[in-house]
Amino acid sequence: MIVRFVGPLASKIGKEVEISIGREISVREAIEKIAEAYPQAESDLSDLSFYSISLNGELLKKDELETRKVRDDDLLILIPAIAGGGKEKKIKLIIKRNFDISTPSYDSFEGKYGFFTKLALEMRKRIESAELILDVGCGTGILGEIFPDSKVVGVDISSDMVRVARTRLYDALIGDGSRLPFKNNSFDAAVFNAVIFLIPDGENALRDAMRVVRENGAVCGTYLVGLYENGNEVLEEIGLRHSLPFPWRRAEKAIEELGGVTQELTFRVGREFVLDFYSIPAMSNALFPKMELEKRLELVKQNLSNLPDEMDFVWRVFQISV
Ligand SMILES: C[S@@+](CC[C@H](N)C(=O)[O-])C[C@H]1O[C@@H](n2cnc3c(N)ncnc32)[C@H](O)[C@@H]1O
Fold first, then answer.
1. What domains lie within the chain, and their CATH numbers?
2. Banded model confidence at residue 10, pLDDT cuts 50, 70, 90
3. Which ligand 1 atom sits nearest the alpha carbon of residue 176?
């Protein structure tokens, strides 16, 4: 069996190796054999949810690691689900871990306010017709209902989000928005609903989305700007900052350079909404990073009670023609 590696595994093992397996075995067993043959890569291979795995050019679903068999003449490719290195990779891992524990509160926030649905409807206005849509950072898969006449394929860095999204979308897989595990020109549109600001190398993510969208297709998305009252940033006024791995000004510049257009969206929201929003574990991390979850949630409650009764939640919607 020929095995190809991309990223850190390629530097540890080599770009391509040949492993003799003899009889037919499952993909998971084949990967265990690789870990045995290359102990320097054992820890990298201990959690396969971090990889997109393709067998003879076909991307495997997570549950197929047990059911699909490989033989000596097969080609297996292991692509790390998280792109980049150093600081970017660290940020992505923190985001992944935080969204992994955010699934229930994310869904209950959405059930109470339908807020991400409102944002998604703004994107829908900008997509004429699309049979196949890529939903980058699909979360729990709310876009399935927004585009009922399309096949929506989700990709998300959080395995827990993907697990839920699989029940609502045509398909969903684990992957990093800035290195999409898809061929060029595979989709009619790609969307990033409330996602791009979480991707530290957001420029790469936008470019990669354009790569996988066919000619005359579209890349759309929504991104957070901030909370304002009377022109003032309300979090700043209470001594806080929502830290964005890909700040909105950088997003705006990147979208403009790619020929895209943006439009501002303002939602009038109450203090309780903001408190619920920042009580989602992943959102609390944006205000109080590097802290235990319990402490963060306590600080959210304490600090946000000082916000005005109502304020403007400002977002933008963008659209890039491919
Ligand atoms: C605020 S949620 C939005 C979810 C969904 N788009 C929606 O509208 O409900 C952001 C999602 O982006 C995902 N995400 C963050 N960074 C990502 C990355 N680099 N690649 C793919 N997904 C990412 C998170 O795991 C999370 O599910």
1. 2-80 (3.10.20.30), 86-321 (3.40.50.150)
2. confident
3. 20
Q: In Å, how far are 209, 234, 307, 309 from 297, measured between CA atoms?
A: 34, 19, 16, 20
Assess contact for 70 and 55: CB atoms under 8 A: yes
Position 187 confidence tier, pLDDT thresholds 50, 70, 90: very high
- Quick check: CB of 198 below 6 Å from ligand 1? yes
pLDDT for 155 beyond 90: yes
Closest approach atom of ligand 1 to CA 99: 25
Ligand 1 centre and the CA of 21: distance in Å? 38
Q: Which of 87, 140, 145, 157 to mutate to test the pocket of ligand 1 (most atoms within 8 A of CB)?
A: 157
3-state DSSP call for residue 127? coil
Mean pLDDT over the full length of the chain: 92
